[in-house]
Specification:
single chain
Amino acid sequence: MNIKERFANIEDPRHQSYAEHKLCDVLTIVMCAVMSGLDRLSDIVMYAENRVSLFSEKFGITAIPSKPTFSRILNMTDGEKAGVVILEIMRENFELLGDIIAVDGKAIRSTSEKGKAHSALQILTAYLTESGITLAQKSIHEKTNEIPVFQEILETLDVKEKTITADAMHCQKETCKKIIKRGGNYCFGLKENQKTFYNDVKLFIENPPNQDSLGVFTAPAEKGHGRVETRRCYKVHDISWLENRQEWAGLKTIFAVEHIVETKHKTTKEMNYYISSLAETPEKLMQITRAHRKTESLYWILDVVFSEDECRLKSEESNKTLNSFRKLAILAHRTYIKSNKLKIKKRIFLPFATSKTYVISSPGGSITTTPIIIPAYPLHVVQPVAPVEFWLGKEIPVADSRRGYSRNGRGRKICAPVGRMSQSAEHRRL
């Protein structure tokens, strides 16, 4: 089943007698535009108009909708159903690697109502950390919270022999019970929402006489950006002293991870506590907690690269759909870079250029110059071009980005996009 056939399974809410553009055509165009790093409707329309021949040849799309039509259709389309189809595309076309599923929520700030801090659309994501595939996602209603939504997601996931990680909000007895019953394992943060449990664990680990009974692993120090960061994991070997431990299904391990950050001016320490159903070494437990933080990287890209929190579309349905497309784009780019063993050798910054050029090295060692399609992709390394339909091996149309760069408050150059010029403004500059 090809992409258009997938999108055709989504119910079109419009009266078909008046529908000039098929829903599957509109979603296909939006997908290609988002894969090219575009996140505004005006840019999506310009992109589509400049790629008419490509859409006609590859997808049989001959008519390009207007900006109001794009907006109206995205606002009407069920974002949950569209997300299901997009996640199916991810699972079927990319390899499912790894056994750690990180579950975390993110709010899209642009959807919040003035004066209502908690009215923003929130999306809870189940993220396979090694391969970068979103296995499931569900929106969180304003009148509820992540806990019941997380438990609903668990019913749809195959968690057998997988490890589910989440923050302290999901450190709940019922959640642990559901995971163990379905054959999975868990590793949850522990904070004061479980106050008695938290105080007991904290007191035991920090009590000097108990230090000899702890397993300790210290990771190699990481240096960069003017600081040295050291991580140390403390595992409690025997938890028989812990009261009410039988109430927590499958509980085998309690541990803590200490973060020590040294800079020129000060040293800071932070201790985070965890519970787990895994009887692993301190080193493995630390790796699991670090894998969970990959969701933060995903959300950072959504906010900075795709400007998700600045999206001008206010409808929750349109934001759900675009959120799924953005996750697909990030996955395709990362997979393309990894599979082709591309490595950035040099970055060339061209303020307000219509395309960005990066010098990369191929596996054979040759140097090539490639235009990037996600402008200012600000990861730890800048990402090169990837195909729109990576799984089909098609060639991507490169988008005109009109992105620029700015400096932050300390004068450091950053890659974050800071706005665009209008078409007439760019013509005047040229």
